[in-house]
Amino acid sequence: MKIEVLYFDQCPNYIPTLQRVKEALRQNGVTAELVEVNVRDEATAQSVRFLGSPTVQIDGIDVEATARSSKDFGMMCRTYGDSGKRVGIPPIDLIRAALRETAGGKPGAHDATQFRQMRALGSAPNRQQGRAFPPSARQAGVPHSP
Question: Which residues of the chain are under the pLDDT cut of 50?
């Protein structure tokens, strides 16, 4: 399992989100590759499906189910739904539920079948195709497929 925390410089919610992801992993007893991705420009934001800072993706799928079909990628602040209000840090229950979905393959999960279906519809990132990123993006840790 690979978890990416995408953010831009000076985002006040990036570090708290990173801490919350680590806590959710601990609470769920899950180990995962945790990658921090600094999104530096609009082109990169489009390429990595960046819905704003901070964005959390598990195996390329957003942790917030209601945001998975969104195409509003760009350099902006991100908010998440939490008990009827919008907050800048994803609720820990949201992250934990996404971890359970990924690990358990439950309906609505981040499993391979759903990922293939989303890709077929054009709403999932295609990690099989090579993507060119500017050198600064590669240095920032943005995933790169040769």
Answer: 106-146
